[in-house]
């Protein structure tokens, strides 16, 4: 009897393995165009099946029409154009956690950032240091406004903050720029930039291997920079600001790292400073936190609610465009469960949002597809972003002069 059961189990496992293998292999192989077609067919089947809801923003027919349209053009498109087409399809889902990501071993050695509605080059290597902190005007002769219009459809977003966060990162990707015909080369690009006096500067930037260790001019882990730009390699840290009688708690990632101590231990240390009377203000800075797992701040939030620090003139949360996913959940909890004053700029996602990400790869191109497995709906705030009570944005002058208008406002007005 045992032998019979064992044989049945083995046969079941073999059949299961064959079924799974067959499901995958039907999408593999063929010539270049056939491989792309199979990848798109896999995307058509897999994303709606795996995602918690692929059609809250677009209909299933619209989704299929987008795939059909791209499939029909495959023979006329280069690989970069097809890849960008897949970016566009996943972005159309309308969920900031659902996106495509294609690995590319190359980049332009530049970093850009939005200050207001303008894009500035905020970091590069010594070879191009003459244009540091200049405003971007054109790429390969194309006006920056047109560049933005070409790239925005590729970016998954629930509000403009996510575009401001992600679009600058696309400007260093030769493959993405080629895919929307901003450049026809993967090796170089021409940037036209403007200095603070309005003078124009044209510079050709050469692509480098993404694996190279780039010697960036600006290294933020420097005590001369504002606190929010320090210790970016730490998931969380705090500093006692003795003169202001304040504790500044920087929460960079919703992931616990026991190498630097648990969040509970750090919470206990923060409350010791408050309970001893050494600090009468608490500043929680999540502006650069893109998420992880929520719940790590439970003890901090409950401790705040039980103390006199739970006061809009004593408790502050700094938020920004990089505040995303689980970090938004923590900030929204502080907003709704405590009397905190929110300072900074809008977050790049909604308080109630699709999340808890899963992923799969397209069989041939190996493009990674991320998708949401849950809808988090726990907050009263039904807006497209968590908005600050006090709007404080960093200007290019603030950035150059190493100022932090959000923290400066808090310390001056509390």
Protein described:
It is a single chain. The protein is α/β, with parallel strands linked by helices. It has three domains: 2-101, no CATH class; 110-206, PDZ domain (Pdz3 Domain, Roll), CATH 2.30.42.10; 227-349 and 385-412, 2-enoyl-CoA Hydratase, Chain A, domain 1 (Alpha-Beta Complex). 34% of the residues lie in helices and 20% in strands. The chain has twelve helices and 15 strands. The strands form four sheets. A six-stranded mixed β-sheet has the order 8-9-10-11-12-15, with helices on both faces. It has a four-stranded antiparallel β-sheet with strand order 5-4-6-7.
Euclidean distance between termini CA atoms: 78 Å
CATH class of the largest domain: Alpha Beta
Question: How many domains would you count in the coordinates?
Answer: 3
Determine the structural class based on helices, strands and strand pairing.
alpha/beta
Helix content: 25-40%
**Spatial strand arrangement across the major sheet:** 8-9-10-11-12-15
């Amino acid at each position: 009897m045992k032998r019979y059961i064992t044989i049945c189990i083995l046969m079941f496992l073999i059949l299961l393995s064959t079924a799974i293998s067959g499901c995958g292999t039907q999408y593999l192989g063929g010539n270049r165009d056939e491989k792309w077609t199979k990848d798109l067919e896999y995307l058509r089947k897999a994303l709606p099946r795996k995602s918690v809801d692929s059609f809250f923003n677009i209909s299933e027919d619209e989704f299929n029409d987008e795939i059909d349209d791209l499939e029909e053009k495959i023979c006329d498109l280069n690989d970069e154009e097809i890849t960008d087409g897949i970016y566009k399809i996943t972005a159309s889902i309308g969920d900031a956690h659902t996106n495509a990501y294609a690995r590319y071993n190359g980049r332009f050695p530049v970093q850009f950032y939005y200050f207001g509605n303008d894009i500035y080059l905020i970091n590069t290597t010594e070879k191009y240091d003459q244009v540091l902190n200049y405003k971007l005007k054109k790429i390969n002769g194309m006006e920056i406004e047109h560049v933005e219009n070409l790239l925005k459809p590729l970016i998954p977003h629930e509000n403009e903050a996510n575009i401001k966060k992600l679009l600058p990162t696309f400007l260093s990707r030769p493959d993405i720029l080629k895919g929307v015909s901003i450049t026809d080369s993967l090796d170089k690009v021409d940037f036209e930039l403007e200095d603070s006096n309005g003078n124009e500067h044209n510079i050709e930037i050469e692509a480098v291997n993404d694996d190279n260790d780039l010697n960036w001019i600006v290294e933020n882990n420097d005590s001369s920079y504002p606190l929010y730009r320090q210790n970016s390699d730490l998931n969380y840290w705090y500093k006692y600001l003795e003169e202001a009688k304040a504790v500044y708690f920087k929460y960079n990632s919703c992931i616990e790292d026991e190498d630097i101590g648990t969040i509970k231990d750090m919470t206990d240390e923060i409350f010791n400073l408050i309970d001893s009377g050494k600090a009468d203000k608490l500043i929680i800075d999540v502006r650069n936190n893109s998420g992880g797992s929520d719940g790590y701040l439970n003890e901090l939030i409950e401790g705040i609610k039980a103390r006199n620090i739970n006061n809009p003139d004593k408790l502050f949360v700094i938020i920004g465009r990089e505040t995303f996913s689980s970090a938004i959940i923590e900030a929204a909890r502080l907003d709704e469960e405590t009397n905190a004053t929110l300072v900074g700029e809008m977050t790049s996602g909604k308080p109630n949002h699709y999340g808890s990400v899963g992923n799969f790869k397209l069989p041939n191109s190996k493009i990674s597809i991320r998708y949401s497995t849950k809808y988090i709906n726990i907050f009263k705030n039904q807006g497209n972003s968590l908005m600050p009570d006090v709007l404080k944005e960093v200007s290019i002058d603030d950035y150059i002069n190493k100022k932090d208008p959000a923290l400066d406002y808090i310390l001056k007005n509390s």
